[in-house]
């Protein structure tokens, strides 16, 4: 399945473009993220903490925020906003 993925922030340095086409088998948002990292390994540190997707990563399908277990429909467009880092809680 082909899915258009728009990325924001530091993930763009991994893809070289704001929008890329991801070729993957289809499935859930989590599956799409795994396929995205397989295609663009430099994005892994922005999206994952170990084997888990970082809690602050946000994904939307066709403009609507979704959960990682949601299915990605054929022809949908994803937007991926990476984890926000930095700052101080003091």
TrEMBL record:
CDD domains noted in UniProt: Ubl_MoaD_like
Superkingdom of the source species: Archaea
Regions annotated as coiled coil: none
Protein known as: Molybdopterin synthase sulfur carrier subunit
């Amino acid at each position: 399945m082909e899915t258009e993925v728009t990325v924001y922030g530091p993930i763009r340095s991994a893809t070289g473009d704001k929008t890329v086409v991801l070729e993957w088998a289809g499935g859930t948002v989590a599956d799409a993220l795994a396929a995205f990292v397989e295609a663009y390994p430099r994005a892994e540190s922005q999206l994952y903490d170990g084997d888990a997707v970082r809690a602050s990563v946000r994904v939307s399908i066709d403009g609507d925020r979704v959960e990682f277990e949601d299915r990605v429909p054929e022809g949908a467009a994803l937007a991926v906003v990476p984890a926000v880092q930095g700052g101080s809680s003091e």
